[in-house]
Amino acid sequence: MYESRRHNCFFLYNSRTNSFIKLSEDIYNELSIVKDKEDFDWDSANINANSLRNLIKAKVIIDPFEDENFIIQKKMVRYMHGFQRSTLGIVLLPTFACNFRCTYCYESDLPRYFMSEITENKVIEFIKSFENCSNLQLCWHGGEPLIAFENVKRFLSKIERDDLIKITHHSMVSNGYLLDREKCVYLSDHKLDSIQITIDGLKENHDKSRIHKLGFSTFDTIINNIENVFQLMPKCHVIIRMNVHAENEADFPLLYEYLKSKWGNQNYSINMKYANDHNNGCRVECFKDRDKIFYAKKLYDNYKIENIGFYPKPKIGGCAATYINTFVIDPKGYIYKCWVDVGKPERRIGNISEKKFNAALMSEYIMGTDMFSDPKCLDCLLLPICDGGCNLRRLDYKLKKIPYDVCPIDIENLDILFDMFYEQQLKTKMDQLENIEINPMV
Fold it and tell me: What pTM was computed for the model?
């Protein structure tokens, strides 16, 4: 609950129901008096009956038992999602090799290694060993998976000949440089659903960040290849990712306008992320996730980019590492829970040659380092709608005492977020939203 000086009115936000309510000054003053009094008699409050009913409906006024029980319910639902076994998630790295040397890469020291056909066959046997899994969600990653395109084709041919394996979601993370027409035709025939490609601003800044190992400019080639996807893979959704850091932050609104004017309503979205220093090897000034509020405000105020998701979205699921049946498999057949752990021997949970897992490490990722194990999260206003942030950072603190800050939103500046959301809602009553979705708060 706060007074908005920007709009000269009063608001209340309740994360339990994700409700945002505009209050009269009288009700704001009344609630300010009683908000910390657990045993207050609401029947004696100077609030009319209709407003009182709305506050109860929005869970502003609750039974003392309700909040504690809600946390237990959320924990139960979260673990039910994490421990479901009907879906098998495989993130497959056919190679460690990459044709780029990006300034913030956390895989820059990995060897140039390609998956052997023997290992591919073992991966397929590993997949088939999950007899109760009716759905396979397959994601290609690397390195750069398109460098190992022959491996990709060979593996998919074997998968598709096997009646016991059914791919229900097929995706890829690629730098897009090798995504020529031939590859687009093949991937379309094999029903690639989505592909994530990073463009780090306009050409000058992108080429400084997404650097080809041979010194070639990469921007124009990637743009042309994405247009191949639109033409030859119309059902494949393209996720344009921009990794924002101190050296390219001014480029995001320019890239946004450039792509909007160039591609209009094509099958794509823009996903803005902050470059993070996962392995202390980042060669650019990385931002903290909680700075997103201020950057989103700059985009909204200075560049009139209005279709930004300012409002917090409720989240239940975590990342791949928090699901018991999701595995990251490297070219040598080693298995991990987190994408960022690839190539670290101490973070392997097993090998595809034998279905034996490091239960201690798996349990840390799934339960031991989640939001319900974090006292700061349990005491946070946003706990009902938050997924708790990165478990890897908590694990690094637990094992190595590396300081961490996983908060996706700076709770001290929520008023900025809600003020912008209020303005946005007023404007959308008059204007129709754009088709491109940007959600820097995720």
Answer: 0.89
